[in-house]
């Protein structure tokens, strides 16, 4: 993993021929979905009379993924293309099931550390993007999110840079990791092991995504490929999530939102690796106690579906930056998490892990003239580094001036 190559990153000099402009804003960017038919729902996914349908992810065997000359274009398009759900799963990844359980079992343990210890693991200067974070983010309602706690770290670089100017400018990416080695030393080992495996598999998937995009009539790439951009980056961020038991989650069953455990959002990086959730009740591992609980995705035609994949499969979702730079041939979709609300859900918690793979902070991104997201953040010449773009995006969500 070297330093980033400072090149303009784009797959094509112009939008793909024959593609219809998708307009501005998130809602206007949705195309027709290939998911099974679902009942239309309101934009913000409020109360639904019928439960959304359940859809399995498109799956690629790891044995096929690791073959660089294997044609996986149909699978990539079905799962990640303009008519897909923006998510795909990889089956039979060697060592993954063991590494998943080793890390996810530590999530309740870090959440139960003494408050003074967790306070020492906080990093407010990074906007709580390193170390422990709880109750710092806001839900759709505007209230602080106390439903889940997170532990953030870079699984590849403990110290991404020693340049103090960069540390001050991009603290969410450049500050050093904080590990609870005096209280939970096994966390660092398990976190890095799973994070590096997910990055390795993500690079394989990115290679096939590059081939798929280049075969859509976009011409030769005049910038870094998705695979090389991810490989060169020092910005990758792992997030170990712990969802606290929701004794009051029956409000979801009484007509509440499917985003009761995690609000609707779209990842803004390149590619996100995701494990399935691990549920426990009173410290005992159990199957999910409620079929309605889990990951939900809003499709390209603004429908909502529940998405499932096997616990021994590794899933990947497309981020906004990749959708923009691929001219929409790879698509990001909004997603959320619903808490269990059945009678058996009392004292149930959930642990999971996400790896956000994204360009380096100084990677130059050449944006197309028409983009579906955050158009107001892009300068007239269409060029920003990923660090600059991220700063503007964070400031937008913090209601500050870009």
TrEMBL record:
Cross-referenced InterPro entries: IPNS-like_sf (IPR027443)
Biased composition (Polar residues): 1-10
Low complexity: compositionally biased ranges: 12-31
Signal peptide residue numbers: none
Chain intervals for the UniProt region annotation (Disordered): 1-31
Cross-referenced PANTHER family: NON-HAEM DIOXYGENASE N-TERMINAL DOMAIN-CONTAINING PROTEIN
Protein name: Fe2OG dioxygenase domain-containing protein
Organism name: Panicum virgatum (Blackwell switchgrass)
